[in-house]
Amino acid sequence: MDNKLPPPIHSLQSGVSGRIPPTSRKDRNSNLELYRIIVMLLIVAHHYVVNSGLLQLLQDSPWSAASSLMLVFGGWGKTGINCFLLITGYFMCKSEMSWRKLLKLYLQIVFYAVIIYTIFCITGHERLSIAGVVKLFMPVKGITNSNFVSCFLLFYLFIPFLNIFLRAIDRKQHKYLTILLLVLYSLFGGIPGIRMEFNYVSWFMALYIIAAYIRNYGFLPKVSYKSWGWIALALTVAGSASVVALEFIYKQNYTSHFLPYFLVADSNKFMSVAIAVSSFMFFKDLKIPHSRIINALGGATFGVLLIHANSDAMRRWLWQETVDCSGHFGESALLTLGYALVSVLVIFIVCAGIDWFRGRFLEPQYMRIFGNAGRGIKSSTSCKKIRNIS
Prior knowledge:
The protein contains 18 helices and no strands. By secondary structure, the chain is mainly alpha-helical. The longest helix is centred in the C-terminal third of the chain and has 38 residues, at 333-370.
């Protein structure tokens, strides 16, 4: 089944949106599209908690079912990043990258940046400035763990070189490299007292290498996809229990540090990686009927990310002013959770609808204007030249 899945248009959309050519869309399985949808919903839920001021309220609130429930509700954003990168590596390790794909990705990012900045300047949520306008067209705005898109764009440029490297090593070397990366990033990064500093560019490369090993050689082939599903569920329950336990430890004054997500965030934490890998192994082989609706929603997930997490102004307007997450936190756990679920679903659907419209009607127009610049130029060819020179 794996070899029949067509490669995506570009790597970030392979990890987030997975848009494919119309000629192959009929044959595309919907299992990983469904996976993208679920993961993006978890990322939006994470932003509901951490970008709204609600996390501080949960820290200051007395012990309650509502606070524990909302902490678990928003605990899976960093795990979601791992999931998307595993999809990217799984497909792109067997694909070629072209500069046209990179241009398409860049133009999608700039499109939303310009539109949202313009709207917020008109409505008074942003101040118009030369620096602000210039920043809209800068592909890289920072190399930190809060700049996912910037780090992904930089990581994307390394993909052809990573593929050359991975084709040059054998299975044993690839396995030991994977183990070394997991020990370095996840084991050391999860030990209290050890300060682990890393950026997403290098971590994305590590995930790419892990995903490529799964694609090239498989991973625990005797474990069925159903078993992987149960493993993912068990790990998620354990991760949720760790969030509640660490909240309890803090609120009982056993520690002065409020770190409920210590075992599930950042993305390098073992629990986050284990949940991502096991859930990916489940959805990779999950057999579901082809669904145009699932594929359409899955194809819009990167647009959902670009819209709802576009800027600090967007975060303030969306989570603090419009949704008012903190204002809808109360003693009733069910009402609090219900409002959060509805808000996340509405935001996802609205943003997905916007990106569908952009992809269906606007993208063909601006790609017709700018797209010829990257047509036919493949980075794999450039890498071959580099390799020949060396």
